[in-house]
Amino acid sequence: MTTQVELSDAHLLAAVRGGDVTAYGALYVRHAGAARRLAYTLVRCPADADDLVSETFAKVLAVLRAGRGPDVAFRAYLHTTLRHVRYDRARRDQRLEFTDDLTRYDRGEPPPDPIVGQLERLQAARAFAQLPERWRRVLWHTEVEGEPLASVAPRLGLTPGGVAALAFRARERLRQIYEREAASEG
């Protein structure tokens, strides 16, 4: 009986593509030492070398399971993949900035609470609904839609100055109602 260790890399690769994970174990046993030696030349830390080898073997296994990868010359393919994994890590690490001073990244304020934001929107909607229809219309057109006073004026039968005055009164009343709603909730 032939053991998997005695089979050629080509036979083991075909077995892996067929779903035989133990065949990949045989490839690992056969080529892990060479992969580690290469990894030790590419990185300084032994732990990083071991991580590099592990990531490389996992990546190659995924490629083989997908039906791609080498049919022969497994070690060459493995070494090439290992170098690519190392280069990808180096490029990724170049984008990292190690610092113990986070003040330039921390605005000093906590992130917004989505529940509080939802409550504030609900209170604003309630306050808006309590305004008279004409005031709601002027606020909608001037504040929400951002329309100029001159284009809102004919719709409301006012002059642009009249629209500005009405919008001012409506904003002030909206603020008062909103504050009352917020105080009653708290």
From TrEMBL:
As recorded in UniProt, coiled-coil segments are none
Per its record, what are the GO molecular function terms? DNA binding; sigma factor activity
Residue ranges constituting the RNA polymerase sigma-70 region domain according to the UniProt record: 27-95
Q: Which Pfam families match?
A: Sigma70_r2, Sigma70_r4_2
Q: Does the keyword Transcription regulation apply?
A: yes
> Which residues belong to any copy of the RNA polymerase sigma factor 70 region 4 type domain?
123-174
The entry's keywords: DNA-binding, Sigma factor, Transcription, Transcription regulation
Q: Which GO terms describe its biological process?
A: DNA-templated transcription initiation
Q: Which domain of life is it from?
A: Bacteria
Which family, according to the similarity comment? Belongs to the sigma-70 factor family. ECF subfamily.
NCBIfam families, per the entry: sigma70-ECF
Q: What is this protein called?
A: DNA-directed RNA polymerase sigma-70 factor
Its source organism is Phytohabitans rumicis
Read off the lineage from the record.
Answer: Bacteria, Bacillati, Actinomycetota, Actinomycetes, Micromonosporales
